[in-house]
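Recall that a protein's primary structure is simply its ordered list of amino acids. Everything else, from secondary elements to tertiary packing, is in principle encoded there. The following example makes that idea concrete.
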Amino acid sequence: MAVRLSVVMVHRTLGTPAAERIAQQVVGELIGLHGIDLVLIAPLESLEKTSTDWLTLSSIQGDLAILDWQTPAAMQQNLDFLGVLGIRALHAADAGAPAVASPSSDSSGVSRRLYFFDLNGFATAEAVVSSIAELNAARSVRTFSLGEVVSRSNAVETAQADQQAFASESESPDAQQRMTTQSTPLDPSVTDERNAEHARAEGSADSVAKNVPEATRGLGEDNQNLDALIDELDQLDL
């Protein structure tokens, strides 16, 4: 995802046709430039805090690039007067700006960066547009690539920590004992003894199953003899 940059182009009456041509070409190029949000306003020193241009300017969030035919110091003074605060940021077109570490903020806690472009220092519109495009590309690299590196580093550290935890658990005495118990085969004598016990148990069950019908048959014969004796006694009584 590209980082967008709000560019404020100050529109003022210029003294030379060459300057007018550069201003018009810059506006035409920036309108279609990827990642750029262009805003046209009247000269900063003429704005009032009830004007539409001031409302537009004060509603912009994030970093600002300001293009004007004034020095960076004059532009920042006008913005401070309007209540549009930020830190003058160092870039290729403003070598006089103080170097500021990222992220940063001034004494009031404002961390927004202001990139000032004095158009008096550019001979062509192409140079202006190229400078803005390079600035936005540098902001994109600083914002996103560093985050990706940190994310990858955290992922690697997490994976290494998981591997170390697994290795520590595998080396513990309890884990080694479980692994030894699971992997050690039974002694042949123990196996033979268990098989013999199993065979004896099966033989006992078969013997019981065979004897039960014989006992039942014996009981049946005794009952028949008793019935016959009772019948004979009944006959004698008669």
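Residues 102-106, 143-150 have pLDDT under 50 and may be disordered. DSSP finds six helices and five strands in the chain.
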